[in-house]
Amino acid sequence: MSTREDEYQEVLGVAADRARAWLGTVGSRPVPPTATAEELRPVFGGPLPDGPTPASDVVAELADGAEPGLMAIGSGRFFGWVMGGTLPAALGADWLVSAWDQNTGIRFATPATAAIEEAAAVWLLDLLGLPSTAGVGFTTGATTANFSCLAAARSAVLGAAGWDVTQDGLTGAPRVHVLVGEERHETVDLALRYLGLGAPTPVAVDEEGRIRVDALAAALDAVPAGSPLIVVLQAGNVHSGAFDPFAEAIETVRRRSGWVHVDGAFGLWAAAPASMAPLVRGVTGADSWATDAHKTLSVPYDCGVAIVQDRAAMRGALGLHASYLVDDTTELGDPQERVPELSRRARGAPVWAALRSLGRLGTVELVEGLARRARAIADGARGIPGATVLNDVVFSQVCIAFEDDERTRAVTARLLADGTAWMSGSRWRGRDVIRVSVSNWSTDDEDVRRSVEALRRAAA
Ligand SMILES: *Cc1c(COP(=O)(O)O)cnc(C)c1O
């Protein structure tokens, strides 16, 4: 019988070998999986075995069984949704997070991971040019970051109207008006649904999907004076990559009282490079910001970041106080006061590692590199007969359409069957499109060249 220590040694060896094998081929293998979930169910399924199995055998079985069903999301030629690979330092840190298994809710109990996350938060606020006193919570993603920020918003705007939502709930509360751009990400609606705020009021957008300030002003006029108000803006439209005109939109909202939240799941990172400053002009004037670390920053899933200017509003909305927890009495407070969960992994540690490995210049180069490659793909696509680039390529997203929807769909299907590159099909501005999202730190010029060639073959 092996000791507990031996079992860890052995299983980590197996996991590391299999992970090396995967990462060693992820950039050269065809991107799509070769097996469906239906086909793979029997591989992992059947009745639960009665007896135990050694840990290293279990992990080997898991890795071998999974391989045909793994999408090469870490490939430099994967451009689907807004997904990408993971930075080596972030991956290493993520493994340590699992090995340490620190439940990072209470500062007193897990000082190391609390301190790591606090350091990562300081770096993030600095890089993104956001107020250094803002509260920062490491959530599972931008959906929950939107939720966390909007929970603080809900408490604050209702509080300003004399209603204590923490004490009295929503029943009988004044209606909270929520205005969003027509092309906001659907997860904003989901966050509002979780918060009991119902469906938001959509505001017209321009041809790139940016909220129109005149339409916002008109929508604001329709909200009764003194009503609790939340306006959600967007940094990075999933189709065009476009940014709302923050300075003008926020100034318009500031003529009355209201909370401005920015969903910047992948696009808030445009605040890091000075070269992109025009895209995010005025964004610091908002009240809260949601972003992902697992998109642009390339840490492993799942990691988002909720940032709220008014730290007290964040703690009031999300914090938990129970007799058996040891509350942090410093001004910073406990990590659990800035996220929806109590128990969670130290998911901010990979963020720290990513930023530590890149440095300021490396982070800027990462963000600029994604946009540069998106422009290169757009340039390549424009040279393909019948292809049109529909959006102004200002960031990492490119929308390509062919002569008609049927042909766009056929080209998409042939591209995916070819396997060299992955781009998602979608619909935008009433047309079927091939949507390219350059979200992988490792995508290089050769990946771009091969992907454009694959698109050209699919269109031929
Ligand atoms: C991806 C995305 C979200 C949701 O983020 P998750 O990390 O998937 O929860 C929200 N908004 C925008 C603009 C996105 O691109």
Automatic annotation (TrEMBL):
<dbReference type="InterPro" id="IPR015421">
    <property type="entry name" value="PyrdxlP-dep_Trfase_major"/>
</dbReference>
<dbReference type="GO" id="GO:0004058">
    <property type="term" value="F:aromatic-L-amino-acid decarboxylase activity"/>
</dbReference>
<dbReference type="GO" id="GO:0019752">
    <property type="term" value="P:carboxylic acid metabolic process"/>
</dbReference>
<comment type="similarity">
    <text>Belongs to the group II decarboxylase family.</text>
</comment>
<feature type="modified residue" description="N6-(pyridoxal phosphate)lysine">
    <location>
        <position position="295"/>
    </location>
</feature>
<keyword id="KW-0663">Pyridoxal phosphate</keyword>
<dbReference type="InterPro" id="IPR010977">
    <property type="entry name" value="Aromatic_deC"/>
</dbReference>
<dbReference type="InterPro" id="IPR002129">
    <property type="entry name" value="PyrdxlP-dep_de-COase"/>
</dbReference>
<keyword id="KW-0210">Decarboxylase</keyword>
<dbReference type="Pfam" id="PF00282">
    <property type="entry name" value="Pyridoxal_deC"/>
</dbReference>
<dbReference type="InterPro" id="IPR015424">
    <property type="entry name" value="PyrdxlP-dep_Trfase"/>
</dbReference>
<keyword id="KW-0456">Lyase</keyword>
<protein>
    <submittedName>
        <fullName>Glutamate/tyrosine decarboxylase-like PLP-dependent enzyme</fullName>
    </submittedName>
</protein>
<dbReference type="GO" id="GO:0030170">
    <property type="term" value="F:pyridoxal phosphate binding"/>
</dbReference>
<dbReference type="InterPro" id="IPR015422">
    <property type="entry name" value="PyrdxlP-dep_Trfase_small"/>
</dbReference>
